[in-house]
Amino acid sequence: MEVKAVARFVRISPRKVRLVMDRIRGKKVEEALNILSFAPQKGARILKKLLNSGVANASENSGLDVDTLYVMRVYADEGPTLKRWRPRAKGSATRIRKRTSHLTIVLDEV
Predict the structure, then answer these.
(1) How many structural domains compose the chain?
(2) Is the dihedral of CA 63, 69, 71, 72 positive or negative?
């Protein structure tokens, strides 16, 4: 039985968080939490919180055994981009794109 956890409008670029996602895809939950605990990236802290949410959803809502769960799917979709401006030389400006992500983790039993 699949269990899902979603985090929307997270202020991190999807490209950056996908690098961390690739490291936990297909791993058991315990191993994935261990990897995320020692990863230095900002995305690792966000994904660890999301993974813990998915584990809580599995145990509370579906009554699944936490020890048998693994990360079936994990993906990042692009959210809305906040557009800002930085002043540059000779009165011109450069666009700054502050990107957001919609993160999804799907857990399943082995």
Answers:
(1) 1
(2) negative
